Amino acid sequence: MAGVEARRAKSASTARKALRLVWTYGWLLLLLVFAVFPFVWTLAISLTDKGVEGGTSIYNFPASLFPRHLTLRNFTEVFQTFQLGKYLWNSVVIAFWTVVGTLAISALAAYPLARLNFPLKNFIFAAILSTLVLPTETSFIVNVLLLRDLGMLGTYAGVVVPTIATAFGIFVMRQAYLAIPATLMEAARIDGASEMQILGRIMIPLSVPSLTALGIFTLVGTWNAYFWPSLALITNQDLHPLSVAVLTLKGQFNYDPFNIAAGAMIMMLPVLIVFLLAQRLFMRGLDGAVKG
Amino acid sequence: MSRTATTLIAYGMLLPALVLLGLFTFYPVIYGAFLGFTNYTVANVGSGEPPRWVGLANFVKVLQDPLFITGILNSLKYLIVVPVLQLASLAVAVLVNQKLPLVNFFRAAYYIPVITSISLAAVMWEWVYAQKGIINWLLTKIGVLAETQTFGFLGNPATALWAIMFVTFWQGFGYYMVLYLAGLQAIPGELEEAATLDGASSWGRFWLIIVPLMRPTILLCSLLSTLAAVRVLQEVIVFTDGGPLNSTYTALMYVYSKAFKAFDYGVASAAGLVVALVGLGLSYLNFRLTRGGEET
Lengths: 292, 296
Known about the structure:
Chain A is mostly helical. In chain A, 72% of the residues lie in helices and 0% in strands. Chain A contains 15 helices and no strands. In chain A, helix 1 (2-47) crosses helix 13 and helix 2 packs across helix 13 (257-277). The longest helix of chain A is centred in the N-terminal third of the chain and has 46 residues, at 2-47. Chain A is flat and about 70 Å long. The model of chain A has no long low-confidence stretch (mean pLDDT 90). By secondary structure, chain B is mostly helical. Chain B has helices spanning 3-35, 42-47, 57-63, 66-78, 81-96, 103-111, 118-129, 134-141, 160-184, 189-197, 202-213, 215-230, 234-239, 251-260, 265-289; strands at 38-39, 52-53. Chain B has a two-stranded antiparallel sheet. The chains are: A mainly alpha, B mainly alpha. At the A-B interface, helix 1, helix 3, helix 4, helix 5 and helix 9 of A face helix 1, helix 5, helix 6, helix 7 and helix 9 of B.
């Protein structure tokens, strides 16, 4: 009797476990659809051969989610009709200089904050961190006026230069330097190395993981940024990065969602590849950068 | 090496960062605050005439402008997204904090909206929200709407702001999920096991163990999310530009329009300062509501 009871209890608990599992995966799948549906649909639109299915609507559900005739023609077309290449190049230039600038500024500024003693050190570090909580509601106005006074409005430099000194970048690099054993530096100093040599030959090579993390976060942030580049380039549409141009594309080609979708996918692809390669960094949140 | 030499080297290395932060971060905050108390428009910029001090006149003008009040109210309405987003993100974090096959895949997939540009989100979601879009199709399929009742969610004053808030939710839940996951990893497993043995349901464990223990993370995340909500601007620019009928016209939209459409920098800055004050007040409220993030 006791055996039967135990078996019954056991099978009940197995059943409960199975039910729990179904419940869990049900939610996981539902959230998956919610998170990626817009991408899946856009991808389907971008691959649809509008010639063959002439007059097909992107709103013809569920058929428009599963295009029967696939083509890459929308992708080549959007390069020809919209000069997508120009905007792609702008994105590459802006992202490249922003990443290089952020890494250089942060790697340099973090060194004295981590490893040297000088007057007002704590005050300066606190001032840098305070930029994280400043009320910046009106900053974009003054920054645009400032860029114009400096003659940088509507240039690549105008987009890049104001964004490369960040508390986040300096903080990340400072943490990386603090993790390097002080004995290494002392040995180098005894051998007569200058501070620049210590930074260049010891600190930076040993901080490559943090630099990579900072570079990747900066790259993704810059590639996606919409508001600031749209303001800094308000006078010069020709330099717009893809993130801004994609809305121009949408405005101009409203009648051709297939080309718009192709443009959108071209913009998404680099970010997606970087994300998939560096997934672990992102999944650790801000720790991902701080711990390298 | 002498102390002076070290100091020189240190400041030399800090110089580029300090110059840039000073010029593009500190100066705009200070000068922007100053502009709020002055008369400064595009005419001044043209003639080179400096800003003229007008005291509180801009603030009086702003607070009497019904459009600004609309903006503040819409920004405050946007705050509804904060508690929903935070609780949902925490719940999702709990869901993916289990050791299950494929759970890493799900986590990564939920993060993809986070790394999506707002302009790209606008392109995709405008199709989703369109009158013939997938949501209307689903609603007619399940019989909530008749074929003739479908409407574009972004074109309707009653739904436009909610539609944009929903996109904020879509882009945010993966981000906060990751922050909460880091916090969850610090909760001792025994505590949850003990609660389960005592017969606590998942619901009970969530409210009685996880939420109280996660209070510090919840405070941090709701602060971030509150400030983002009250400063909402680029979402509105890319989706509706404040329309239809000003139903998505937020407080910073007012600042933006005054500065870049009316070219009245003084009034724009004054409005920005009011928004900053509102943000400060809301941050304080956040501290009170989460009891300073102290665990109970």
